[in-house]
Specification:
single chain, about 300 residues, alpha/beta, Nucleotidyltransferase, domain 5, 11 helices, about 45% helix, about 20% strand, globular
Length: about 300
Amino acid sequence: MYAVIDIGSNTMRLNIYEHKNNKLYLILSKKITAGLAGYVNKKGNLTKKGVDVAIDSLKEFKMILNHINVNKTYVFATASLRNVNNSKRVTRIIEEKTKLNIDLISGKEEATLGYIGASMMLTLDDGLLIDIGGGSTELVLYEKGKVKQARSLSIGSLSLYKKYITNFLPTEKEIMKIRKNVLKNLRELDDYIEPAHTELICGVGGTIRATRELNNDLFSNVEYNKQIETQHLKELFNLYLNESHQFIKTIIKVAPDRLHTILPGMIILDTLANHYNSKVIEVSDFGIREGYLYTMINKE
């Protein structure tokens, strides 16, 4: 068995897998909503409180691992540590306090690993993969089963929440401001990923999985439905603006730990779908963690 710890901007997660016949089988998953992006100050530094939260979370994961015999534990960090100005210093402190080696992966690596993970679950021939995290959003354009472009945007569900939303949930005006920011970032990628007709999006990551759960509940889809029609995203926003009580009640039921971040994440997803003229989002339960672990095992 192998363990992988993902230090994300919104959540930190420990997953333990069995590796058999070149496939990964999830045995255990433990999530902590650490919200590290919320501990970044105006200077762009991760504060001492944020460092302490990361250390305490990792120590909690280590306590679990003390009772499970794994071949090896891999630890990686994404935008949570990559995008802060004191990245090297805080990474060193966290490593010293936890006795864990942290692999700080680039945005391009994060995008590519997300594609590798998703391709273990879905057949990915031609399309666009989107991974919306707490502090960054990754896009992968793939053709004939191969990565053509892998890009990362420094915007995520939690970082946009922190920047634009004054109260717990966004106003209509704040939603428009977030859309404008996302669109500005997307247009900077047009030279790499053309806003042509990309009918199918492959979605990975917690924000998109939570959106799928919301979609399935509100539109009476079967629980195991893996797709979101992009038209439904517009209907979800209309529901939020016109019947917010029902919308919030459903989020509390299906994804309570994402109550404040799911809407900024959905704005990113909806803006992306509009920009690339997409009709359907196919959601993968495998993503960066599986892609990272699979890559590391094959390197051994």
